[in-house]
């Protein structure tokens, strides 16, 4: 039996993972799974229940009991939490900040890894996140690790925010990203690190088209 295609994309915030993940999924006809959306949905469940971000048992409970699904094509992905559409909600600043707090808890990560593996049971996938090549799919056929300068990542995030109608000073975005970077790379439970067999792509100077072409060449070589 031919092993099914799994493409793992890891890297810090704003490095271009979701843009590349969606484009690859569309081009190759694969399922796209945004693993960060799952951590974000858990953060929303905790916030909306009124529990504190210091209440570990409540956070672990939300991660285990939350029914989270991703539906629709890659460019119009809908995130459902307990049957509620939280696609926009999970991108608000409180959820963004809380997501890296919930993601540092080992029991939350265990529950999410299980959900992610279940979501990908259906077929070949492109999944992006922080631990996809190291923990969720250590046997992925292709592992990409994207990175870019903090300035370029903040510029992209600030552009995305303005497209959503929120104007945020670039310095503020830079501060917020640096804070999440340090939580994501500094935590004890599967921190953000590049898998030893991942291919590093620096996206600082790359257009989306150039990034997609480069990634497609790599995928073809591993086909
Ligand atoms: O990619 P994102 O910004 O939507 O991710 C939200 C948070 O979840 C981010 O702080 C890192 C964390 N995360 C993680 O720890 N592991 C993943 N596989 C995906 C996201």
Helix content: 40-55%
Q: DSSP helix count?
A: 9
Q: What is the name of the CATH class of the largest domain?
A: Alpha Beta
- Spans of at least 5 consecutive residues whose pLDDT stays below 50 are none
* Ends distance: 14 Å
What's the main sheet like?
5 strands, parallel
- Count of extended strands: 8
Task: Give the count of structural domains.
Answer: 2
Overall mean pLDDT stands at: 94
Kindly describe this structure.
With 223 residues, this protein is an alpha/beta fold. The protein folds into two domains: 1-30 and 125-223, Rossmann fold; 36-123, Rossmann fold. Helices cover 50% and strands 15% of the residues. The protein contains nine helices and eight strands. The strands form two sheets. It has a five-stranded parallel β-sheet. Helix 1 packs across helix 9 (208-222), helix 2 (35-49) packs across helix 4 (93-102) and helix 3 (56-65) packs parallel to helix 5. The chain is globular, with a radius of gyration of 17 Å. Bound molecules: 2'-deoxycytidine-5'-monophosphate. 2'-deoxycytidine-5'-monophosphate (DC) binds next to helix 2, helix 4 and helix 8.
Question: What is shown here, in short?
Answer:
This protein has 223 residues and is α/β, with parallel strands linked by helices. The chain has helices at 17-28, 35-49, 56-65, 93-102, 106-119, 132-136, 150-163, 170-186, 208-222, and strands at residues 6-10, 31-34, 68-71, 78-81, 84-85, 125-129, 142-147, 199-202. The chain has 2 domains: 1-30 and 125-223, P-loop containing nucleotide triphosphate hydrolases (Rossmann fold), CATH 3.40.50.300; 36-123, P-loop containing nucleotide triphosphate hydrolases (Rossmann fold, 3-Layer(aba) Sandwich), CATH 3.40.50.300.
């Amino acid at each position: 039996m031919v092993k099914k295609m799994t493409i793992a994309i890891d890297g810090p915030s704003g490095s271009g993972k979701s843009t590349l993940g969606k484009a690859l999924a569309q081009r190759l006809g694969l399922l796209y799974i945004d693993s960060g959306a799952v951590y974000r949905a858990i953060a929303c469940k905790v916030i909306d229940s009124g529990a504190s971000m210091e209440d570990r048992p409540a956070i672990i409970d939300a991660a285990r009991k939350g029914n989270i699904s991703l539906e629709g094509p890659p460019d119009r992905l809908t995130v459902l939490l307990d049957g509620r559409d939280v696609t926009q909600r999970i991108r608000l600043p409180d959820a963004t900040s809380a997501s890296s707090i919930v993601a540092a808890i080992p029991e939350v990560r265990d529950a999410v890894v299980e959900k992610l593996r279940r979501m990908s049971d259906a077929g070949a996938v492109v999944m992006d996140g922080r631990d996809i090549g190291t923990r969720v799919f250590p046997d992925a056929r292709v592992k990409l690790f994207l990175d870019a300068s903090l300035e370029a990542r903040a510029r992209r995030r600030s552009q995305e925010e303005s497209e959503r109608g929120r104007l945020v000073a670039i310095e503020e975005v830079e501060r917020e990203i640096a804070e999440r970077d340090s939580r994501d790379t500094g935590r004890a439970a599967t921190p953000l690190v590049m898998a030893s067999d991942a291919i590093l792509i620096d996206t600082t100077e790359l257009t989306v088209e150039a990034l997609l072409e480069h990634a497609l060449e790599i995928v073809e070589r591993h086909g």
